[in-house]
Automatic annotation (TrEMBL):
Residues 9-100, 155-413 form the Aminotransferase class V domain. GO terms for biological process: L-serine biosynthetic process. It comes from Bimuria novae-zelandiae CBS 107.79. This is phosphoserine transaminase. HAMAP family: SerC_aminotrans_5. Pfam families: Aminotran_5.
Amino acid sequence: MVNRSDVHYFGAGPAPLPTNVLEKASQVLLNYRDKGIGLCEISHRSPEANEILAEAKQALTDLLEIPDDYDILFLQSGGSGEFSATVYNLVAIWVEKKRAKIAAEVGDDREEVLKRLRKVVDEELKLDYLVTGSWSLKASQEAARLIGAQHVNVATDARKANNGKFGVIPPEDQWSLTPRTSGGGPALVYFCDNETVDGIEFPAFPSSLEGDDAPLVCADMSSNFISRKVDVRKYAVIFGGAQKNIGNTGITIVILRKSLLPPHSTPASPDLLRQLNLSVGPIVLDYPTIAKNNSLYNTLPIFDVWVAGQVMSGLVNTYGTKRIGGQQEVSDEKAHLIYNTLDKYSDVYRVVPDKSVRSRMNICFRVHGGDAGKEKAFLAGAEKQGLLGLKGHRSVGGIRASNYNAVSLEGTEKLVAYLEEFAKS
Ligand code: PMP
């Protein structure tokens, strides 16, 4: 039998969780707080469930210093579901704003309002995507599937700047963002903060998305959530699946600017969207509905929320006033250890992305120029030492060491020692 303590797991997600949380989880699954029933069995509307939900929100708020004018939602959509949810929700808000403006000019003539609105939608509705890796590519493709490719503006496609492959983030002055004219501009600007497959992370928030007339920025933080400081105010929507840094698969967390919710913003009605040939999203992805119901519109997997809450409260207790900055220091240190070793043996290892955009979370590299036999040998040797989950994503191959929060410094050091040993062999 292989014990948990015998291995270090570097999988890209699902990913390792703190052992103390899992030990406690096995108990609460059987019997939560001596009630005689387990956490998967109690009602999501019970006082216990409400407390779990409130604690998880509080821990996330503490870690990321989320301001009061932001809401936290829990959904079950996965990161992929949020590719769709961001589109449905922000397009509906954009359309309603345009409708209200036209109605203010035209008055009660509904036919005339609809006629003008159709023209505005046809000519002006744009969603900007920064395509820097496989996941932002998928998100942009989902937007095109939902509302039509003519409305999707790929403001940058990193492959075009790198011989057809992901590996760089083109300079901002080369992006073709939809112009922000007064009252105009894109319905959203979307980017993936950390590309899990390609090992690319935005080093900082793009400065061209800042300013008084900043667009509504949506960011996918699935694979670098709670690993570094984030200035939440710069974003309209931040989302991420729990299954990397936060918890087990099952819940998706959305941090949302409250001004995007009623009464501050109203989405266009389903009838109006249908008249405009725009798609209407499922109710379980509707942010106003989920927010109004404190994420309990339908049955929320409370056990998953509990795990996430335990992980996040653990970080709050560990790092105190440093908040997520404390985790950032540890994450950066572990990533440096690995990258330094890869760079030291550059005749054996080649880091895939450009140095300026290397991910701290997913370290993607090739062994001996991608020689299939040597990469196989690398993985087999690693496995013998209990270093698991290092195979690169099936679409790109190579090696990927994921450096999520629950990967210990000890595990990282073991991996570094193996990288040294293999390079010298
Ligand atoms: N975005 C990123 C950055 C991801 O890494 C993933 C999954 N690995 C997704 C989105 C999709 O998430 P899910 O599988 O939960 O739909």
